[in-house]
Specification:
Order of helices and strands: HHEHEHEEHEHHHEHHEE
Shape: globular
Strand content: 15-25%
Radius of gyration: 19 Å
Oligomer: single chain
């Protein structure tokens, strides 16, 4: 998986909700909320909420008496989130300086975002600050590339064709794949780790070619690959990933984990 950190417009936010949420992120809502143990009366904050797939699932769990807030840097994402689930309080804000008072939340969740933050330790410190003593902070990340049965060999193949830079360009999602390192980072900012749970969930693409073009077009590789090279990559991608094709659709297992901690 690959991405660049940039602000997106309304059309891109709608496409994210329509394509990427069901393709990848919805499958991780249950493990995140299971680790968070959201219950009636809880005040919940979902950090870097995107279009809000975790936050809107938490609404029912926090009722009656609780509330759910989603915060994201991108206003286009928040506009989609508000359209889909108006019962959540959607707030624009930066994880580096969350716009909330200290200790205001019982539960904080952060799904598939820690690897995007320029300063993960600073982000974790802010998460700790806004969570009450004894509350719960749950961070979800994907495992390292070597633990990915489909993406690992695929990135290796792309690197063979596109050069060693490709590993870095395609590596953002896997950069927080070591839960021990994340646990150490939590300890450094005053979060006591309670549990780490490993999971595998599927990612869905309409086809192998759709997956390849999605990954390439999401990085500067799109401007660095000539047509013959991309064609060779497509052929080898079909060979590498054919065992993950089900009824024409590509279903890739993704390894990841949730880390729960308390201030």
């Amino acid at each position: 998986m690959a991405t660049e950190q940039f602000m997106i417009d309304a059309e891109q936010a709608e496409a994210y909700e329509e394509r990427f949420v069901p393709a990848l992120f919805r499958q991780w809502v249950e493990p995140v909320l299971e680790a968070a143990e959201v219950g009636p009366g809880d005040q919940v904050l979902d950090v870097a909420c995107g279009t809000g797939v975790v936050a809107r699932a938490a609404v029912t769990l926090a009722a009656p008496g609780g509330s759910v807030t989603g915060v994201d840097l991108n206003p286009a994402m928040l506009a989609v989130a508000h359209r889909v689930e108006p019962r959540v309080s959607w707030e624009q804000g930066d994880v580096a300086a969350l716009p909330f008072p200290a200790g205001g939340f019982d539960v904080l969740t952060c799904q598939a975002a820690i690897f995007f933050f320029p300063d993960p330790a600073g982000a974790l410190a802010e998460m700790r600050r806004v969570t009450r003593p004894g509350g719960r902070v749950v961070v979800h990340a994907f495992s390292s590339l070597h633990a990915q049965p489909a993406y690992g060999p695929w990135v290796e193949m792309v690197t063979h064709h596109a050069g060693p830079e490709a590993t870095e360009l395609l590596g953002t999602y896997w950069s927080q794949g070591d839960p021990s390192a994340l646990a150490d980072c939590c300890a450094d900012v005053g979060l006591r780790v309670l549990a780490v749970r490993r999971h595998t969930r599927p990612a869905f693409f309409p086809s192998v070619e759709a997956m390849v073009r999605t990954e390439v077009n999401a990085t500067p590789l799109r401007d660095r690959l000539d047509v013959p090279t991309l064609d060779r990559m497509l052929v080898e991608s079909h060979e590498l990933l054919e065992t993950f094709v089900e009824d024409g659709r590509l279903v890739i297992p993704i390894a990841g984990y949730t880390l729960s901690a308390t201030p």
